[in-house]
Specification:
The chain starts with a helix and ends with a helix. Residues about 1-10 have low confidence and may be disordered. It is built from 18 helices and no strands. Helix 4 runs antiparallel to helix 7. Helices cover about 85% and strands about 0% of the residues. By secondary structure, it is mainly alpha-helical.
Amino acid sequence: MCYNRRMSRKSDKMANWPVGRLLFSMGIPAVFSMLIQAMYNVVDSIYISQYSQDGMFAIGLASPFQMIGFSIAMGTAVGVSTLVSRRLGEQRREEANATASTGVILAFLHMLIVVFLGIFVSKPFLRIFTQRAEIVELGYQYLLICMGVSFGFFYSLLFERMLQAQGNMLFPMFAQLLGAVTNIVLDPVFIFGRFGMPEMGVVGAAVATVGGQILSGIFITAVALLGKHEVKLKFRGMDLFEKERLKAIYSVGLPTAIMNMIGSFTTTLMNNILVRFSEEAVTSLSIYFKLQSFVFMPVFGFNQGALPILSYNYGARNAERYKNTVRIYITTAVAIMIAGTLLFNFAPDLILSFFTMTDSLKAISRVTLRIVSLSFVPAACSIVFSTMYQSFGKGVMSMTLSVLRQIGFLIPAAYILANIGLEAVWFSYPIAEVLVVAIFLPLIMKAYKKAFAQAV
């Protein structure tokens, strides 16, 4: 009885709490944990910049391929958690349990794909951009560890998203905090060889990363399996590969994975354009991506809070709460992006001062930050549109938005502007974002009206 009342209170929270209070109660812990994630991503690069400029270049080339593993893990987690939220909103608890259980099996199968890619494909990928054997070897060693030992990342992300789908944001925050702090502490130990450890450089950064992921994964898995939650894993007596369930998971999860992979593919193509100017141009883009995470991660944190709320209320057919959630979400996201744009334009030297770099690299990076940050505000709108499509189970439309932005607009614009010069290339980012918002604003409004007209 007590357990049922506790579960009922969690459902009441999703259904009845004031939308603003609910979004911020679920979003703020995610924002905090995402900022910690951004911090340790940057700390990695700061330490590597102190250790070796070649190391920075190698990681810049390796990052797009590493993103493939992240994309597969994210697609799995988002596909499963979105369906869990929707089933809870529909009061179909047994199906929510089955969806979560299926997700555990899918995560393992998808992880094997990432391990294969890390071992056999990563080195040929790196050779596309450089014939310097030392750079290829550094990048390969980094990817071999990060992708070959990815089970911690897969299961930490999966169980964090499943708990968030139930309105539980604190344990996922603690898990991400645990992983980030572990990474930050281990970075100097393994990179520079402190406390009796051998000096490992770039390899040490990878070891620190997977160490934090494994610890985070162990913690959140224990919470998910041993705690009392609204969704329970059940493997016996269930058809874990039921066709309609898999279709529903992949209808959101596969486009989400492809969207992130497109980002990897886009960065690869951008690196191919930039390396024609200089290795420093490639490194400056890598530095930008590290720093912009402090702006984008809070928005993605609110995304983690908003998506389960939107999915739940779509499942519950509550159009008013859905609309209010979108309104507060987009207002918050735009405000964060405005602050980021101002910071990158008026204080670029301040944030670049954390990195050890040559004067020429700093000059390139300063321009990169100022121009690319002009894309932040329209990017906030694109993120919200994509989240809405995912909540409706329309992952293909979310993917289409991403494809059009990056493959349809960004890369062609970059190739054309490269004929003018390196500085012109950076303008391809704001151009692409503005065009996407102009196209998808009327489309997402139409999708919202159609979704809730069908619900009446």
